[in-house]
Amino acid sequence: MPAKTVNDIVALCKRRGFIFTGSEIYGGLGGAYDYGPYGVELMKNIRDAWWNAMIYSRNDVEGLDAALISNRLLWKYSGHEAGFSDPLVECKKCGTRMRQDKMKDTSKCDNCGSTEITEPRAYQLMMGLSIGATSDGAINAYLRPETATTTYTNFKNVLDAKPHKLPFGIAQIGKAFRNEISPRGFVFRMREFEQAELQYFVRPDQDEQYHKMWMDTRLAWWINELGIPAEKLRFMPHEKLAHYAKAAVDIEYEFPDGFDEVEGIHNRQDFDLGSHTKSQNEFEIHANVLENKDSTTKLSYSDPQTGENFIPYVIETAMGVNRAMLAVMLEAYTEEDLGDGKSRTVLKLKPKLAPVKAAVIPLARNVPELLEIATNIENDLRKLAIGRIELENSGNIGKNYRRHDEIGTPVCITVDHQTMEDNTVTLRHRDSMAQERIAITDVPRRVLEIVNG
Ligand code: ATP
Q: Which candidate, 31, 3, 8, places its Cα nearest to that of 253?
């Protein structure tokens, strides 16, 4: 049984060191969270799974890591400065501010039920910055609200450095910032979050085929790499398309209180490269773009066969890494009744995603002979370079198993007195709790099998 509410996860995240409230000792800050020792590992493993699939398993995608702060002009021509806003309304009775498009009923206040609601006004979501000693406090730069725009502005740099024929893509993982009106749902909607985005550049007449290809590819990734059951995922086409989009579909996951977006897969036509290119008049740009007098570079593609020079279309896949981690934890969270009034909580994560890959546990605390063997096993496992390995020297085996069940460690290796006689250890599996006795020399091979399982 996966988690019934997000709260099941919130308590575990704090207790076991996955996620803490940001600025907690000063009363917190809305929409900001800190990731603890196991949270950073799980996030890293999700990022790695994405990078493996999007870059290392293909030959048509390059990586990029662009700056988080960027010149204001980027956000002028991308359309964000004028149009990246949410409709903000306020309840005249209790003062609650709400995002109109996310209200349960737009005629009533979500908080007090009053029908006295203000008219919506556009609320700018980008976080402005004042950079440099001469800035006088005025906004002259922005924190990026997504990774995509800095990918478009580097289109030519990447293509010049690493030539590609269409279709090809550029992928980025990194922080994004949005001044969300009402952060909510734990890490579901934050003001600082992380995205993993691909911009895939295609010939204009091949956009539909690649949009479909990426929808299928990304859905399969959620199922196979993150271990989310297919029936908990669905495609949801956007009802209202942004002016630049030809098609937009979200992948939604069934959270405890209903389906909601975890990734967007959009056909953005030639809007982005067309917006940021210089000499716009030389190209037949289909999307409605702002006239650009500031760009210094043509963001076009020359077909090596035909010599034709044109602005490619973009298919974008945009995933929230924090939302992916939340979905993974909700899905893996299991409470099991063990009979006799006993129960356990276990995170049944895919072993590859687990924050700790294996724990080595001497049965008794501070027994030098046991500790030495355990340390040798720990060192052998470290050499596999599969991620974090932990050695527990508390002597409380039950407590250690409980802790490692709760953080999702796929396997524990227990060293006991018999080990000193016959060089065997107990290998305990997280999900079945089955135990097997194996030779110490077999431990690395077995652990590798389990982690790659
Ligand atoms: P929403 O409609 O939920 O505000 P969006 O459609 O604006 O999201 P995109 O701009 O398409 O989102 O961003 C891509 C992905 O980034 C989303 O699918 C989501 O997983 C993630 N994301 C967006 N905003 C946030 C946020 N405030 N906190 C955490 N993740 C977010």
A: 3
